[in-house]
Amino acid sequence: MYRSHNCGELNLSDINKEVTLSGWVAKVRDKGFVIWADLRDRYGITQLIFDEERTPKEIMETAKGLGREFVVQITGTVIERTSKNPNIPTGQIEVLVTAIKVLNQSLVPPFTIEDQTDGGEDIRMKYRYLDIRRNPVKENLIFRHKVAIEVRKYLSDEGFIEVETPYLIKSTPEGARDFVVPSRMNEGQFYALPQSPQTFKQLLMVGGMDKYFQIVKCFRDEDLRADRQPEFTQIDCEMAFVEQEDILNVFEGLTRHLLQEIKGVTVDSFPRMTYDDAMKKYGNDKPDIRFGMEFGELNAVAQHKEFGVFNDAELVVGIAVPGAATYTRKEIDALIDWVRRPQVGAKGMVYVKYNADGSLKSSVDKFYDSNDLAEWAKITGAKPGDLICVLSGDANKTRTQLSALRMELATRLGLRKNNEFAPLWVIDFPLLELDEETGHYHAMHHPFTSPKPGQLALLDTDPGAVKANAYDLVLNGNEIGGGSIRIHDTDMQATMFKHLGFSPEEAKAQFGFLMEAFKYGAPPHGGLAFGLDRLVAILGGQETIRDFIAFPKNNSGRDVMIDAPSPIDEEQLKELNLKLNISL
Amino acid sequence: MYRSHNCGELNLSDINKEVTLSGWVAKVRDKGFVIWADLRDRYGITQLIFDEERTPKEIMETAKGLGREFVVQITGTVIERTSKNPNIPTGQIEVLVTAIKVLNQSLVPPFTIEDQTDGGEDIRMKYRYLDIRRNPVKENLIFRHKVAIEVRKYLSDEGFIEVETPYLIKSTPEGARDFVVPSRMNEGQFYALPQSPQTFKQLLMVGGMDKYFQIVKCFRDEDLRADRQPEFTQIDCEMAFVEQEDILNVFEGLTRHLLQEIKGVTVDSFPRMTYDDAMKKYGNDKPDIRFGMEFGELNAVAQHKEFGVFNDAELVVGIAVPGAATYTRKEIDALIDWVRRPQVGAKGMVYVKYNADGSLKSSVDKFYDSNDLAEWAKITGAKPGDLICVLSGDANKTRTQLSALRMELATRLGLRKNNEFAPLWVIDFPLLELDEETGHYHAMHHPFTSPKPGQLALLDTDPGAVKANAYDLVLNGNEIGGGSIRIHDTDMQATMFKHLGFSPEEAKAQFGFLMEAFKYGAPPHGGLAFGLDRLVAILGGQETIRDFIAFPKNNSGRDVMIDAPSPIDEEQLKELNLKLNISL
What we know:
The structure is a homodimer of 584-residue chains.
Chain A: E1 18-30, E2 34-41, E3 44-51, H1 57-64, E4 71-80, E5 93-104, H2 121-126, H3 128-131, H4 135-157, E6 161-162, E7 169-170, E8 180-182, E9 190-192, H5 198-206, E10 211-219, E11 231-240, H6 244-263, E12 272-274, H7 275-282, E13 296-297, H8 299-302, H9 308-311, E14 315-321, H10 329-340, E15 350-354, E16 360-362, H11 370-380, E17 387-393, H12 395-412, E18 423-427, E19 432-434, E20 441-443, H13 458-461, E21 470-475, E22 478-485, H14 490-499, H15 504-517, E23 525-531, H16 532-539, H17 570-575, E24 578-580
Parallel strand pairs in A: 3-5, 6-10, 12-18
Antiparallel strand pairs in A: 1-2, 1-4, 2-3, 4-5, 7-9, 8-9, 10-11, 11-23, 13-14, 14-17, 15-16, 15-17, 18-21, 19-20, 21-22, 22-23
Helix pairs in contact in A: 4-6, 14-15
């Protein structure tokens, strides 16, 4: 038996008990005649004491030889500390060691195993097993476990069945981002790793499984943005005999459950907003609604004066920044520089100071009098003390720029609070999205999403105007999930493929099995998927999903700890009937 | 809203209620003036009734057009049936339909959607989504879900944390059975899919995670035996600061919990048997101990007489087959033919009838008198009425042959009862296994398994005799899991790799990251993995794991429903810097 207790549980009620503990030496303070060592395990830290008077000499010697991260087993007596530490549960006691065994030694770790470490990201990734010993990382992993438990609990209680779908599936030419897997038994043929279990969950609905879910890994071989991973985890769900309303209600319930159980937060309202409204009010299909700063469109009051910049613009739009009327000229110039950065791309910014005394002062006083500016204040909802920031130009671009400015200012002003949660359904997404480069439309969600009833005819005349039965769940300005009501009719699915530019042959080669399945009594169905990595990070009040993944990959898709991917043997390639195109 | 109730819940207490149901038309009986239809969903079957007197004409017309597996939504009134069906929960009522909507039509399904179907395995696999509509398959998937829930519940309550480990890991030359995954971002380099998360769970122990589990997919690209899958699911576990005893206790607890919660079975005893004893008593490292028929070794009493076959044999060993003394000559000849089949491989079989009257009659009466045979009966534990079957020859081979005979006879005699559960730990496995072809030893479990304390020296002198801290859990003659106490010391791990024929360079290239990790305070640790597919099948009282997998692959590793694997585009190959070695 390696331990009678863990390192996080002993307290004053255990005084005089003989205990056995195992763990890592976190810290040693050697005062010569007395030595203290902090012993750490998953559950906490317990202080050990060795002293010349009470501790046998050979144990004293061993204690003197202890290094950081040595693994030791000790037996000793729980005694009261003279100098107590109120910050930890075991802070009232220490253990007077009567026996010690070094279970394993340790080299000096390449960074300190403390909440605030001196190690940079790269070194911590290479020695991730040491990083996991640190409280923040360990707690994140335990937190993730708890979220997954509550997800499974809620959905199971709602009658959902977790069904495992295959990882070795069919590669589709459309799947430019598929990871492929050569098969040894079927020479020259490849599986693909799923980007999502989409078609399988639909087949489960055709199979009558009714309410399906799965917490499942998905894979995407694409250039990684800062916070993406080639493998990521989804909470994947599907229901049959449901309308959009049924699905939103179930997953509103799940989200409320998680916020309640995990964060102790009761959400008052769970608003819904159309995609069009979200774009108009926030310039963004995943608005953070924890704070106001809604867009005010100023075309009607700002155009047809003598300010050419606005007159030429498709859209003139502003936000009221709370309490920012006191910004200095220098601060405002810095803000203008910020919106002009290539990442934002605005040409410039007009501002109005709505001073605390009610006076209005703008950068365009030449063109607008205070009556005009008072109109602007009214439309943007500005109050005395606010700063109104106005951008103009092409409607879509200007909205995106103003959205970026809104988020930046909210962050600077501390309005994006980690422990405040404001979920939002964004609904009525467009069915199709125009690829500006190719001029072709492609599915905004995926090709199985159904259009709103009665809008099918629009596909021929005005494809961009067709709305879908598609919805996203947004939490604090992050999309944490999305889904749709699916097409369940073979003919409509064929029509959709046609509009997406698939030839009948291509559609058949890729999705023939699904269209075939639809011929045998497919029920109406729909579903959604939540990104677990992102959800956990947001619930944890943090930004970076990597901090909630045990063994993440870096931005090049590499696992630097195990050094993968890596070249493989010529022999192994040959067995797969493959060779490298260009030897590297 | 598609339904107010499901098809499994209405009964006499709902009489006169107006209800809305959705589901599949399972059966239609059209008597002209009255039509009955069975409506089926995941929850059951409800009988619908349409009749000329009470049902509007156009609804009658629709009812007449209903085909099998049409998807319909109906509204109607719950009424009492005249002819009740006591076999189903809804058998007391039927629904008089007042409105009907055909939600989707169906072609005639290629096999009947009934508990006993007319479809063969191949066609059911191709249309797996229809197969899943059948009760037995649907119930198996729901059963699997329940098992997974109980596994997670038990382990979480025991303080285990489910941690997701990566799927895109490092390919190792040793991993001849690795599926590899070419990386687009890292040209010419490959990931591998994990055969198990072995090294990651060990790194989690080094990371202080203490008690880890995961229900996780694993992958093996090898020739598939009848009941193997290229992707399979493991309950994977690891613990730190534990000895073998601690691990056995936890997973005995898990197994008891599952049998209790899932099957309502309380297991009395949970015996442990050494590998050597299992081989000696049952000729098998996964003995089915639900019935006796233990091996009796007869060398001492059967050799040194005049029967040359026995005298030349390394081992003479028999079993008592209960109640089989009445076998006819013909039946016994058939049994002899059975053991002579190439799959079993015995040269012949000696038998003794221990007749009900106490007399003994054998096929070797020429060499043995009844005193001799009485000795055999005593050693094999035969009672009057039993048949003693004796095989002889090379010890290992003979044991394997007699084990096959024992299992066959137990099956024939109905001794292997689906709803009787007898778990068993087999412990003290050999560390190494001799590959008879190459003459080299390889790790019986895996290279991270630790030898029994004090046996390291034997590695040089008698490698085959070294026992490991390794154990298997056997249930009803099936290995459902296994594990070991791991090596946690860099030097011992290096020694082990050396004995397994790795050069230091090979060991470093493949497992350098693990050996490096061991230098930073690796705790003593160990664990095990259960095969979930097999476990679920056995708990379900069935043999075939495929019946408990939603979308299984066939013996060639193909998914015949989606037709995977399949060739991929030249373009896609090129992007991966690959080409086919030989065009196919």
